[in-house]
Write a structure and sequence with these properties.
single chain, 178 residues, mainly beta, 2 domains, ten-stranded parallel β-sheet, 1 helix, 12 strands, globular
Length: 178
């Protein structure tokens, strides 16, 4: 389905795989290709190809370049390139593309809307905002042992983390009160 450019393979060198039996809930951002054989609920941004294997079950909003659906997909997909639904693929939801590049094999299911958009902004695949600022990522965190001789009940708070960037005069190490 995907044409090869000279010296370039169909799959990107960076491949993210969610294996069969694995369930992921949340946001996934991949700079390369993504293959899902497990279950994903949430949001997926895959800069290259997005592949759902036969056992894959996706309930998410997806942004990608190209897609191959051999499993189950429910949600909204924004694809700047080709989308193929194989004979075992099930697509339920909306598909937004730059051009009409949708292929449905005999036996494949597409239930929803196929929308062609010339709004280039929606096809941008940017890394989602991080909740941790870059300054917070650079601060070293050192473990502080809080084990005591109070038996197994003290194991609940076996370790706490003291962030040296916070006010060190507060005396709070995150330790559970006893």
């Amino acid at each position: 389905m995907f044409s090869k450019k000279e010296g370039e393979s169909v799959m990107s060198k960076t491949l993210t795989i969610i294996a069969e039996g694995v369930t992921v809930e949340g946001k996934i951002f991949s700079q390369g290709s993504t293959r899902v054989d497990g279950k994903v609920n949430g949001e997926i941004i895959s800069e290259k190809e997005f592949i759902i294997g036969k056992e894959g079950k996706i309930s998410a909003n997806v942004k990608t370049a190209n897609a191959i659906i051999s499993g189950y997909f429910k949600g909204e997909m924004i694809a700047s390139g080709e989308v193929e639904i194989t004979s075992t693929g099930r697509f339920i939801g909306n598909l937004i593309q730059k051009d009409a590049l949708l292929t449905i094999s005999k036996g494949g299911l597409f239930k929803g809307e196929s929308i062609i958009s010339d709004n280039q902004e929606i096809f941008k695949k940017e890394m989602p905002e991080k909740s941790i600022t870059p300054e917070m990522q650079k601060v070293p965190v050192r473990p502080v042992s809080t084990l005591s001789s109070q038996g197994s009940s003290a194991a609940r708070s076996a370790f706490s983390f003291n962030n040296p960037a916070t006010n060190q005069n507060s005396g709070n190490t995150g330790e559970a009160s006893r």
